[in-house]
Specification:
The chain is mainly alpha-helical. 77% of the residues lie in helices and 0% in strands.
């Protein structure tokens, strides 16, 4: 599957509702395959470095498979897996680079709030001195504005990197650094739209998260009544079951996010590059 895949009949750019509904249809029609891929990915996490690379590659494979369905060029799991496995170290490097970006964001936020703290101390007359009420109210208002602006800024930055794994899983001649640039390029001008899509998608996943929380609570109650006072054994069994439930819950939710990302990816390419795409409603 190359970066130039497309059907001869283009569709109009999708609305927010169409993006989410297309993701739901893809997720529902391929739930078993995508769930098993995600579960395999999380199991690989137990193996350091190599397993982490495999995990990122397998999760990104879901977006590749979903994109193939959207452009009417479906791909077998084995074929797609061979492609992403050939880039597994690039996936790991990409995640490392994004981790460094995250550290940079955290450091920047710390510096920003440290400077604000110094400025606040200067405005109220120095540390240990009581400022007048007007200055305190002003500082609270400024802190609120700065906090909201910082929060929005971080969300904006994270959204620009929303698609970093998708081009690497789909396009030719892409590596760990260029896939980050590609995400930055595709999301330009569509940050708020992607944020809204992500918010709607998050709302859809809430029932699944609640269901797994309920199951976890039931497991805890049942094990507590069966095991009694043997807290050591209870803790071990409970930890194993909760870990398994956590993996299962994540494996149920992550494919939905990856299919939504695939739909966003082809929608943005359609908008920015005129990529011809055809949603196969009769099969999805």
């Amino acid at each position: 599957m190359s970066g130039n895949l497309g059907s001869p009949t283009p569709i109009q750019p999708l609305s927010v509702g169409n993006v989410v509904s297309a993701g739901i249809r893809l997720y529902r029609s391929h739930l078993k395959d995508y769930f098993l891929l995600a579960l395999r990915a999380y199991i690989w996490l137990f193996i350091p470095v190599y397993g982490w690379a495999k995990c990122y590659a397998l999760i990104s494979l879901i977006s590749r498979l979903a994109f193939g369905e959207l452009v009417n060029q479906p791909e077998t799991i084995s074929s797609g897996e061979r492609f992403v496995n050939s880039r597994k170290w690039q996936f790991l490097l990409m995640m490392l680079l994004m981790f460094l970006v995250g550290i940079g964001v955290v450091v920047g936020m710390v510096i920003l709030f440290a400077l604000f703290g110094v400025l606040s101390a200067a405005l109220v007359g120095g540390v240990g001195q009581q400022g007048n009420p007007a200055s305190i109210v002003l500082l609270i208002a400024i802190a609120l504005v700065v906090g909201i602006a910082a929060f929005i800024g971080v969300l904006w930055l994270l959204t620009r990197f929303y698609l970093v794994d998708v081009p690497l899983a789909i396009e030719e001649n892409i590596d760990a650094t260029s896939t980050i640039s590609r995400s930055w390029e595709l999301t330009q001008g569509y940050v708020w739209r992607i944020m809204f899509i992500s918010f709607v998608a998050f709302l859809i996943t809430i029932p699944i998260q609640i269901a797994f929380q309920i199951v976890s609570g039931i497991v805890q109650l049942v094990l507590g009544s069966l095991i009694g006072e043997d807290l050591g054994f209870f803790t071990l069994v409970y930890s194993v079951l909760i870990l398994a439930l956590s993996f299962a819950g994540s494996a149920a939710i992550v494919p939905f996010w990856q299919t939504v990302k695939a739909v966003i990816y082809y929608d943005l390419r359609s908008r920015r590059e005129g990529l011809g795409l055809q949603l196969r409603d009769h099969e999805i």
